[in-house]
Specification:
185 residues, alpha+beta, endopeptidase fold (from Nostoc punctiforme), 2 domains, 6-stranded antiparallel β-sheet
């Protein structure tokens, strides 16, 4: 029995001594910081976040540019109505069909790839590149071309988001290449 009590006291003293050593190295418990030891052996700390309020990122609705052809707004509405919940990897086809259905262009474009969309719209259908660098600043009905290497995407700007073969309100994962619009005559 005496040995048990002696071992218990020695273990308790050892733990107390160890806890004092930890506090002396800066690893003391804290309510505002979390202390840790880096792989190099030094002491690091990070602020403890107790509450997190999720604030959604809200982008303003797109505006109508009076200089652009009003049929582009109709094309945006048609594209939004025909858009699916998920992508079918047919973005340029859906944009072409919306532009033809709205009467913005008189014939179906011949190119197959989204990377060629902007060039064909400018060359054959009277579109011009707009001086817009942010996709959320594009006016309603503008055709936005995104791309990175061989991976490209085309959408039409709607009031609340973007439509092609699917509708989204989120930013495209590819960088914005150019924004195109057709001015009314």
């Amino acid at each position: 029995m005496r040995r048990f009590i002696l071992r218990f006291l020695v273990c308790g003293l050892g733990l107390t001594f160890f806890a004092l050593e930890v506090r002396s190295e800066g690893l003391a418990p804290s309510n505002s910081r979390f202390y840790y030891r880096t792989s190099a052996g030094s002491t690091g700390s990070a602020r403890i976040i107790r509450r997190y309020w999720r604030v959604p990122v809200i982008h303003p609705d797109a505006r109508i540019d009076a200089r652009l052809d009003p049929r582009l707004c109709r094309a945006a509405t048609i594209a939004e109505e025909r858009a699916n919940a998920r992508s079918k990897a047919r973005c340029w086809r859906y944009v072409k069909e919306a532009l033809v259905a709205a009467g913005v262009i008189d014939s179906y474009p011949k190119t197959n790839y989204a990377s060629e969309a902007g060039e064909e719209l400018v060359r054959n259908y009277g579109f011009r590149q707009l001086p817009v660098r942010d996709q959320f600043a594009a006016p309603i009905g503008a055709v936005l071309v995104f791309g990175h290497g061989n991976e490209c995407h085309v959408v039409i700007r709607t009031k609340k988001g973007f439509a092609s073969d699917y509708w989204t309100k989120n930013r495209c994962k590819y960088p914005l290449v150019a924004v195109y619009g057709k001015f009314s005559s």
